[in-house]
Amino acid sequence: MAHFQTVRGNFSDHVLTENVSVPTVDDTPTWDSSQKSHQLTPMTIVKNIAILYGLGIYPVAVSGFYYHNYLVVLVTLALGWGGCLLLFRMWCRASARNRKIFIRLALIGLYISTPSFITRAGEISPMISNMFFIAAVGVLATGFKLKKSDIALVGLFLVATFITDGYKYSLAYRGGMTGYRMGKTAAALTPDDARKILWIGIDEKSRDKAGAAFNKSPYKAFDQGSAALRALGYPKDLELFRFAIADTPNARSHLDSIVANTAADYDCIWITDNDKVDVIIPPAKASTSKSDEKQQ
User: Fold this and answer.
1) Contact partners, residue 154, CB within 8 Å, separation at least 6
2) How many whole angstroms separate alpha carbon 16 and alpha carbon 1?
3) E runs forming strands in the chain
4) What gap in Å lies between CA 57 and CA 74, rounded to an integer?
5) What is the pLDDT of residues 228-278, one digit of tens each?
6) What whole-number distance in Å separates Cα of residue 290 and Cα of residue 166?
7) Structure pTM?
8) Nearest alpha carbon to residue 85 among 157, 142, 17, 29
């Protein structure tokens, strides 16, 4: 949902200027892009191979590990073996010629996906290499006649797949709704005539989980203010300045200094810390805030 908000804003008919402004505050902990380098380890290669090929034939809701939902992991683990067993049966009943074609296509897919073994692509782009593997399975299935027990294996595989996909979609929905609620809160407290807004967010990278692609942290769900822009309807000529603070023990102690040094330059300041949203309005703008209008 957060990504949809960003794309929606970029292609909106309104003119939306998004700049980055770093307030000058001594010792403010900010993120250095050089710290985000990808480290190659043997476990990275093993994980990428498992994601590229293992989860394609053995659907398991591995995201459940990161959110301590072990029941969905155990259920999919117990059901997912049906696809592996069916593939083994297809191999045993296939002709020698079809086995050779299967091996060739599988090797082509392996060759194409080699770069994914040493990059993060193993987590996000397995489809191209899997296309060759799927074609290989199709060749292996030529002439294969399903028995009742084979149909049962297909059913187990499909159930495990639906549970895995449904669980990931539920995580994505929850993460999106977090950003939606935060955006609504910020928009409700923003003055109607605010045209220059500063967003300050504490980037909780230390709280990120491997399954965050399906359940974003509140920081990512707010999407650097895009959730609030969507709730505001992408006002024309609004300028949004963004500043992220690294989540360190002293990060929150810098907020007051940043606000004091920058408040006069903006119509409104959005501050996000986890799922908490604070809106600060300079005294000159306070009388036009939506919150004050409701109280009146």
Assistant:
1) 82, 86, 146
2) 19
3) 16-20, 196-203, 238-246, 268-273, 276-280
4) 16
5) 999 998 888 888 888 888 777 777 777 778 888 887 888 889 999 888 999
6) 39
7) 0.68
8) 157
